[in-house]
Amino acid sequence: MTLRRWLNAGDCYLFYYVNQRLQCPLLDRTMPWFTLLGSATFGLALSLATALLGREQTRLAGWQAMLALVGSHLVVRFCKGLVGRCRPYLVLSGARYLARPWQDFSFPSGHTAASFSLAVVFALNFPVLTWPLVTAAGLTGLSRMYVGMHYPSDVLGGATVGALFAYAVHSWPWY
């Protein structure tokens, strides 16, 4: 078995585990809400609210979050077109989806990239919030598998893109 086939088999196994085996009424109700944490509407609203309404450090964090969000979104759009990977609910038999079906490509997860770009920027600016923010971002990524939209590698790719943009924007000299 080639490395690519082995990785793909692991990706499908983990997807089915989250999408099928973890299935329960409580998660059916809560996971779509975690997906919303990675939506463009939430990310833009949070970034703008903190950038415009916050005090000095919060305002800076809001602008950093906005830049990380926009940058990660552009990379995600580019990669989706370049990789062209179909969403799991379109190709895997028995995969269920709880969200509105999307017809664009799967890799990397834009919702996960958005949630990690926000979480990491705010965690770098307010370290006491690191665990709650990164946990919420991780649950957003998990929710994307649970609702049937992404493979685990899509989520990992999105988390990496979001975190890297957040770190780069935060590290930029803002003085």
UniProtKB/TrEMBL annotation:
Gene3D superfamilies: Phosphatidic acid phosphatase type 2/haloperoxidase. One of its GO terms (cellular component) is plasma membrane. GO terms for molecular function: undecaprenyl-diphosphatase activity. It is a multi-pass membrane protein. Its EC number is 3.6.1.27. Its main location: membrane. It is found in: Cell membrane. Residues 61-170 form the Phosphatidic acid phosphatase type 2/haloperoxidase domain. Pfam families: PAP2. Keywords: Cell membrane, Hydrolase, Membrane, Transmembrane, Transmembrane helix. The keyword Cell membrane applies. The chain crosses the membrane at residues 33-53, 113-134, 155-174. This is Undecaprenyl-diphosphatase BcrC. The gene is bcrC.
